[in-house]
Amino acid sequence: MTSDTPARRRARVFSRRRSAPSRARRRLGAAVRMLAALVLAGGVYTAFAPGAFADDDVQLSAAAQEGKALFDNSCISCHGRDGQGVDERGPSLIGVGAASVEFQVSTGRMPMTRQEAQAEEKPPQFNDDQTRQLAQYVQEIGGGPQVPDGPLTVDLEKDPDALARGGELFRVNCTSCHGFGGGGGALSSGKFAPSLHDATERQIYAAMLSGPQNMPVFGDNQLTPEQKRQIITYIETQLQEDKDPGGLFNLGRYGPSTEGMAIFLVGITILVFTSLWIAGKS
To answer: Gene3D superfamilies recorded for this chain (predicted)?
Structure first.
């Protein structure tokens, strides 16, 4: 057995003294690397992530400044400062875009008097200019979809086939809720699809972009801007100008199919009663 000489004991003590600082340095280095990684991740997120909140220092345009004054007077109690939202009162408006504001405000659905299954259409509280100003303010503080500039319908003299394409797109995408005649219809849980007979072209376009209530969002990857214009052209020229899609009578604006069914039922009823009358006389 090897004897434990004083030299070996001094060597072990020296080795322990060297190893202790080494472990401390490793732990300190790991902590520094972790902190650097967290700082780097936070910096990357701050630089590239989309804004999750409104910027207090954002420079507003003149229209948005007017909209902010209207917002602070009429909307802030439910939607909060800078559109951040208020719990159990109103949602955040960050990211909803000007299109949503234009639809909700121009149709009188907002300001909302109380929480219901669906916001009812009412006479608007703001005129067109004020509505655009509110929409511009929400757009500049949070971004989101907005109604494009320029005409929102198709010039049928230049593209006469656009009406037929718009009718086909309307039947495929809209009739399941709004009906073939655009008169609206009932949905589940007390909700309903509103009538399109009084809707303006901006309201229809904004609704397709924002998807209010139960309506799906029709982004440009679902319906291109040109297809949206074709649908609006069909609604305005065929459903809002009191033109029936065929037939002699306005039976739900479904065309001759409902009239044929009505004539069939009435005719069968007359034949039955006529047969009974003849049988009774004989």
So the answer is: Cytochrome c-like domain
Annotated ligand binding at 1? The verdict is no
| 215 confidence band (pLDDT: 50, 70, 90) | very high
Tell whether residue 6 is among the known ligand binding residues.
no
197 is in an annotated binding site: no
Q: What is the pLDDT of residues 85-100, one digit of tens each?
A: 998 888 899 999 999 9
Are 196 and 124 in a shared domain? no
Q: Is residue 72 part of a domain?
A: yes
Count other C-beta atoms under 10 Å from residue 10's C-beta: 10
177 is in an annotated binding site: yes
Inside any domain, residue 172: yes
Do residues 92 and 125 both lie within one domain?
Answer: yes
- 124 and 69 in a common domain: yes
We report the CATH number of the domain holding residue 223 as 1.10.760.10
Print the domain residue range for 225.
162-240
Sequence-ordered alpha helix ranges (H) in the chain: 6-48, 62-74, 76-79, 97-106, 128-142, 162-173, 175-178, 201-210, 225-234, 256-281
Q: Are strands 192-193 and 185-186 parallel, antiparallel or unpaired?
A: antiparallel
Tens of pLDDT, residue by residue over 120-172, are: 899 999 999 999 999 999 999 999 999 999 999 999 999 999 999 999 999 99
For 156, the token pair is 């049928």
Phi and psi, residue 193, nearest 5°:
-90, 125
75 carries a ligand binding annotation: yes
E strands, the chain, are 185-186, 192-193
174 annotated to bind ligand: yes
**Residue 198: inside a domain:** yes
